[in-house]
């Protein structure tokens, strides 16, 4: 994993509002490369991975000529920030109330 990515993941983990992050590979099959936080463990993490991938693919399909750089999805309790790259999908879940 590139040093720049390692540094970014360390900085994200240090924020107190961050509940966790999940780093996915961008390939035919969703694979979790790394995660932090209880919310992304086990089957729950696999569900989040599949949903994140579907969201990015759906939006990307609608924007045929442009590529997504950053997405922010807010619910009543949490905010999911997604940063797609050519090789990775990084999603961070945080509590905006903190």
TrEMBL record:
<feature type="domain" description="Roadblock/LAMTOR2">
    <location>
        <begin position="5"/>
        <end position="94"/>
    </location>
</feature>
<comment type="similarity">
    <text>Belongs to the GAMAD family.</text>
</comment>
<dbReference type="InterPro" id="IPR004942">
    <property type="entry name" value="Roadblock/LAMTOR2_dom"/>
</dbReference>
<protein>
    <recommendedName>
        <fullName>Roadblock/LAMTOR2 domain-containing protein</fullName>
    </recommendedName>
</protein>
